[in-house]
Sequence to fold (352 residues):
Amino acid sequence: MVSRGISAPLCEHPQPPKSCTADSSLAHLTGYNMQWASTIKEVELSHFFKEWPAMWRRFWDIWVVSWVIILGVGFMASPLVPYGYRITNFTCILPIMTQACCHFLYPIVLNPWCECCGYSCSNRADSQCCFSNSRWRFLAEYHVLGARSRIFSIFLPAHACRSVQIRAIRVLAADCPLIGLRKRNNERVINCNATGPAGVLIPMSETQPRSTPTLRPVGSHLSQTWHQH
Amino acid sequence: MSTARHAVLHALIDRYYAIACALALSLLNWALVGLFADQLDLFYLESWQVFLTCIVIFSGLSNISSAIFMYRLNADSLGNALINNFKVSCSGFHVLQTVADVQWVIFFFFFFCGLSWHLSTAL
Fold:
């Protein structure tokens, strides 16, 4: 399911290749351009009115289609239509309205920074977010792919802000039950704080203090070794 | 061997096609059932019935069976598992509980219902 192209550690595609269904569905799920992360200095909270231009660019077609369907269904149920042609059957309207409404709400409800979805955070002071840790882990699983090596490729969403990525790393670092996060010898993935540069997660020896952020800038693994035994 | 491979391949691929045609087919279902309900009544299975079945099974019964499963594993008492499955704030990452989490039910509902168009454009 984690498909080729996405899992390549040093991927040069600006966008995930949409050549097979697994690719497209994964890239669709996250809706992301694959990019390397840059240095992140602060966490910012986003909201709908900041996000919607990006959402519109990404989802304008299905928004138009779903509103056409919704208005069309509403029109056909209205008394404007002659009686024999009116479609007022509940069981008939419900499936198509479910489809149309879910298509419209899809980027809004599933956007990690959407506060309107009613997902409450268990620890609000800590995280500033509206998702529980389990959902962040779910997101992190799709953000942090290519976990075959100890280099983790981080992919930023096109319509979400960078703090998603920070949060994903923090969740991953808290404890890592996720895909292929290997523990070799006494290496482990170390916590990082939100102000550290993101991009490459580097395992670290247990002898070093856990609170030290061990993130290095992108590409630094090419020039230096990071075994720290 | 060949048959088994084909079966796996079709199981993998066909579900994407099935999801992809959901939007178009539900539109077709709306027009057909709405306009020609009398003629179709004898042989046509309304998508409402399938919809209801899926909702009952996947969001209702799967949570209950997952709770029974947790109980049988001695991971939890039956009542707690039931409550947890429908109202959970997951503190620890646990696959069974998170999959059965009711927030995930909502999450997956929007996810899978909104998937159709994007898959059909990708295919």
In short: Chain A is about 40% helix and 0% strand.
